[in-house]
Predict the 3D structure of the following.
Amino acid sequence: FKRVDLNRKSKDELVEMGETFNHMIDLLETNFEKQEQFVSNASHELKTPLTIIESYASLLRRRGQQESDIFIESVEAIQSESVRMRELTEQLLFMAKHNEHWNIKKSRVNLFDIVLQSIKSFQNAYQREIELNRVENLWIYTDEQKLKQLLFIILDNARKYSEDLISVVLGKENNQLYIQIIDRGIGIPETDQNKIFDRFYRVDKARNRKQGGTGLGLPIAKEIADAIGAKINLSSVEKIGTTVTIYLPIDEKSD
Ligand code: ADP
């Protein structure tokens, strides 16, 4: 046997290795706890609409044939809770699919065209008035589909939490392009503003149940932004409205 000589240097190395190892275990544990938390939150969020559907189905069965208002109320509730469940499942699948694997396909695109297309397809789904400033020659090297998904989430929030005109402003600032989505809606209380990017966080669950939120929109938006190198900035004043700005870095391929 060759005697292993634990001289000072190798002892230091062992200590260092031990520390790295401990740090790795800590990281794994934190990740595991986060996963557990996520699964538990997801199950809880899916259970709520299911319970509501179940109880309305039972009410419908007992009294739906005789009482027409109960019939209408139950059918409407079952329908809206099913929509919620579908949205939630779609978002959960999106998160699971993109957990580590983002298939980014960048190309040089005209920002005005991309945003206009997004607004048009959004307006096909929801009849909402949206204004957009016309700007020529804003070229960006980005993943068009991911940017459109990101825009859709922000526009959808503007739609859910406001009733008036939504404005979209495009521009160039320093070395980046920006897309600003401005709504004149209920706004977000200051104390909640640093939490709304957390998974499943909703400002007021009662207020949001009517709007059908899941609390996964903004976290997904943030993940998409990270994947395409964009930054999201949100500023909001209660009862005045919310402005979300998406910053896109210009690189040599954009020009
Ligand atoms: P949700 O599906 O509930 O809309 P999000 O993650 O997209 O989930 O948003 C988190 C919460 O932030 C929402 O529940 C809502 O309370 C608040 N919020 C997001 N966007 C806006 C907005 N434009 N105006 C007011 N509140 C907003």
